[in-house]
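Chapter review: from sequence to fold.
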Amino acid sequence: MAARNPTIDRLIGLLVAGCAPAIAADPCNGDLRLCDRPYNEVAYLTTHNAYSNQDYGFLIPSPNQLKNVTWQLESGVRALMLDTYEHLGRAYLCHGTCGPWGKKKLRPVLSEIKTFLDSNPNEVVTIIFESYLSEEKTEASFVDTGLIDYIYAHPIGAPWPTLLEMITAGTPLVVFTDDSAALLPWHHYVWDHAWELPFEYHNVEEFTCEDGRGTPGADLFIFNHWITGPLGSDRGVANLVNRYPLLHNRAVECWGHSAWNPADHLPNFVTVDHFDLGQGSDVVWSLNDTWPLPPLWMTQTSFSRGDSASLQVSGLEPGARVYFGAGFDGQGIGETIPGLQGTRSDLLGQVNPIGEAAANPGGVATLTMIVPVFAPPGSVSTQAVVPLPGEPALKSIALDGNIH
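The token string follows.
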């Protein structure tokens, strides 16, 4: 495929915008439904230290990813965390320092990103820099590779464009930096636009929804989900924490956690080590599929027999009805609510309704679930079903727990 001409792309975008509403003919980021969504209302599979991989020779002693950036993008990754340094007067990607255990020149990696965008014109990609490199050298790397023409510049406080609008305009690349001195309009200081969860956990028990850097309620939510071991990243550990139940449940919990995420903002950048292990892509798909419904949130996910837990859905219109269901190890429990018998969750199988609740004036619907004393050890699956106005089908959202 011939390289696109960004100037012509922009002219076409202006003509389309001036003549008729833009209509997506092809999926955006793999899903036609995402084309009309604002950039900040989409979840993206994100690689932590994307440059730290075996293909680039990183041995620190355990790289964070398996293969190169091209492979990551072709496998569904849509956001890359990159650490930039100056080494011997040039721009490099390094981890901590640019030593014999790993370093990679920045420009070839930017060229990989450009090649991917040229070959995949309906994809939107994000770069998040941890930058120890001057803005001048950063800009020069984008100019020299031609990637500078693909970058979208976003004014602080302005509404974000849709993915289709960015694609049509020829600016499908967003660049963030943690350098607070950044001045270029496209070189966005990340904490002007986003907040994140803490970035260092040593075991699963330390996972939290507590905010780290940035201000909760900002436009974008960086969802950090990896374990830092004594020797760095570990593929065996990543294979465990990237599995669907743990990754999905934590993402959903942090999406609906009113104390730390008051705006009920979905996790945008689902960031993991060794993204090829586990089900990160499935989790991102589920988050995008659930939007714009606020998530189901349980006050706990580990139970003993006889325990009770509140199931909550927030962000609803006051008075909206929500139907709750639960099942244990695939066996439904509770009384059937008329009209909802047989409601199924694509993820969890059969879940029988156990009750309903109306949203209070604050838009929160709550139902208390009691785990039966006869429930066997194993998994508990909960589900909330919300009828959407103007749609014939019910929309369901789900969350897992376990009984010990």
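Two observations follow directly from the output. Residues 6-19 form the longest helix (14 residues). Confidence is low (pLDDT under 50) at residues 1-23, 330-350, 391-396.
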